[in-house]
Design goal:
This protein is α/β, with parallel strands linked by helices. It has helices at about 5-25, 40-55, 70-80, 90-100, 135-145, 160-175, 185-195, 205-215, 260-275, 275-285, 295-315; strands at about 30-35, 60-65, 85-90, 115-130, 150-155, 180, 200-205, 215-220, 245-255, 290. It contains eleven helices and ten strands.
Length: about 325
């Protein structure tokens, strides 16, 4: 009995991969955004969708599936058929924080998804009401230490990225600030605008309009570097070395999605985000355009999980 040659086997393998790629391109790519329209994650998805469709050669459909801090949308992707046609726009909350805060998720976050690529980092900005005397981070730290427990900061809820940034800032500066949780980022910023609280940490995207209008003062951004859209606003790390607390958005597929589908989508995301006009639009929204390999993205998720698991344990933070 004669077995096929290596060349024949290679040809058959390539034919199979080509058939899979053709099958994928024949059906739309459904991108599940596990949050309501208008937020940072949704905005990022809509900024890249058309260009991503061009690179993939297939239609990209965005479906918003909000609820339960992103769990509802994530669960839909975790249960989806792993053929590369349904993917998740995840963020630091859905992938690195929720598995710590919620002990009974309907999926195992460590095994339910196959990371594909980061799209952008979303630094937060330390905001204060104009009535706060501090004009920079050193002055704010001095004010907080002079009046321990007198100032408060608003967040979108216990365990949110806004909350964790605030707790990280308190630990790094050894200050006492009262946490005031709200049911969402909108109410949290609304009460900051009204002066009911004095501080908040929010994404650049959701706070840019208020900064430009002078209704809120931006003291610093929470990433490792300054952001292009706020070039004159320093980082917290320029005062508190090593400080970094950012959110991010990226694409994940259901576990067991074929490797060729993962690599094909990762390449398309890389080429999409590398387009100057796409990178510029992301930067204008306060994001920092950045892609990764699937392995790099997986390592990033695990690293953030470890960082926030320690913080959440130390502070005794629980989900509401």
């Amino acid at each position: 009995m004669r077995f096929p040659s290596h060349r024949v086997l290679a040809t058959l393998a390539l034919a199979g991969l080509s058939s899979l790629a053709m099958a994928q391109s024949a059906k739309p790519l459904t991108l599940i955004v596990p949050f309501a329209p208008g937020g940072g994650s949704d905005t990022s998805a809509r900024l890249i969708s058309n260009a991503l469709a061009t690179h993939l050669g297939q239609t990209v459909i965005i479906e918003n599936k909000p609820g339960a801090a992103g769990v509802i949308g994530a669960d839909q992707v975790a249960r989806a058929h792993p053929d590369g046609s349904t993917v998740l726009l995840g963020n630091i909350g859905t992938q690195s924080i929720n598995p710590i805060l919620y002990k009974k998720l309907p999926y195992d976050a460590k095994t339910a998804f196959a990371p594909v690529s980061l799209i952008a980092e979303l630094p937060q900005v330390l905001l204060v009401h104009p009535g706060v005397a501090a004009k920079d981070v050193p002055a704010l730290i001095a004010l907080l230490k002079a009046q321990p427990g007198k100032l408060s900061y608003s967040t979108s809820g216990a365990g949110s990225s806004m909350h964790l940034a605030g707790e990280m800032f308190k630990s790094a500066t050894q200050t006492d600030i009262q946490h005031v949780p709200y049911r969402g980022g909108g109410p949290a910023i609304a009460d900051l605008l009204a002066g009911h609280v004095q501080m908040s940490f929010a994404t650049v995207l959701e706070s840019m309009g208020h900064i430009k209008s002078g209704k809120l003062r931006a003291l610093a951004v929470t990433g490792a570097q300054r952001v292009p859209v706020l070039p004159d606003v320093p980082t917290v790390a320029e005062t508190v070395p090593g400080f970094k607390s950012i959110s991010w958005v990226g694409i994940l597929a259901p576990a067991k999605t074929p490797r060729i589908a993962i690599d094909r989508l990762a390449l398309a995301i890389r080429d999409t985000v590398a387009q100057p006009e796409i990178a510029q639009k992301l930067n204008e929204q306060g994001a920092v355009a950045r892609t990764t390999t699937p392995a790099q993205f997986a390592a990033m998720i695990q690293s953030d999980h470890a960082t926030y698991a320690q913080l959440i344990a130390d502070k005794g933070i629980t989900a509401e």
